[in-house]
Amino acid sequence: MATDQENNKQRMIxxxxxxxxxxxxxxxxxxxxxxxxxxxVFVCQSCSGLHRNISQISKVKSVLLDPWSDxxxxxxxxxxxxxxxxxxxxKVPVFYYRPTHTDCQLLREQWIRARYERKEFVCVExxxxxxxxxxxxxxxKRGRDNGQFLSRKCILSERDGALKYYNKHDAREPKALMKxxxxxxxxxxxxxxxxxxxxxxxxxxNSTRNIFVYHKDGxxxxxxxxxxxxxxxxxxxxxxxxxxxxxxxxxxxxxYIKEGYMEKTGPKHxxxxxxxxFSMDDRRLMYFKDPLDAYARGEVFIGSKENxxxxxxGLPPSTQGYHWQFGITIVTPxxxxxxxxxxxxxxxxxxxxxxxxVNRPMLPQEYAVEAHFKHKP
Length: 377
Known about the structure:
With 377 residues, this protein is of the alpha+beta class. It has helices at 4-15, 45-51, 70-78, 81-88, 105-117, 128-131, 189-192, 218-239, 245-248, 344-358, 364-372; strands at 34-36, 41-43, 60-62, 134-142, 149-157, 162-166, 176-179, 184-187, 198-204, 207-214, 258-264, 274-281, 284-288, 298-301, 310-313, 326-331, 336-341.
């Protein structure tokens, strides 16, 4: 005869089949096997660890391995993921970044804290740090030449259409002025070596400029990130009147399609191959001597097959001077670019990334980017 414990476990497993409960309430990962028995939600193992950081609000246990009381099962049955979303996500701003299971821990933890601990999407006034259209504060910024992080005053102003930073706290003129219309921000904790590290990029004379910043307070850093997204959203609303929100939101910030080391050679294909760090930012393939360089050594535009861009495995037969064996050739209307990868897996990943772009027809604004494109040899 089944015990109460076994019955309760079966009831919990059955609850996972209800609409909304089949994916993690926080990051969307499939088949969650943990639950918060104080919030009444089902979460993945990774997010269950983040719930332990707010143990005064959320207490978690395993659906399959831990014992469940009748009262706990009843509570889970009367709540669930869809009910929690209706309660805690009533007023999420359209520009606010909703992390997925592939995002860094910082974004996921702050999304969890914002909903359950700070109740930011129930009380609109708590969204002021990223919704006001103006944000000022100090961030640690990596020096372009010496690599040291120094405190810098930063101001984001939608009215001025720019993010600015100042080298001296009392300086009148900013050291850099980054126009909102070319601004991007992407969390890069591994690359920057800081758990809250953010890479900010903008275009300067049609070349990409990188700035690396962090703040010791995770909430502060995510608020900056969402303030940038808010400014970008309001800019795009003006630039594309009548556009649907669903079309604008993917344009607010973007992660790199792929990053990593490859070897490359110069335009004559006679120089030796050099190891470089590559970042694929939509159709811009940039290469750097060091991943934390302020400027790329060069940028390659990857267009579509309709415009004579082709991606081929391997290198031309006469090629010499490479160390890594897994080659890629990108044919553009102007020239061939030759790259090599350390492993076959890396080659396949880069090929897939390039092929995805080549297969995608170019948009009118991408033709403008291609026309302005400068390749630095």
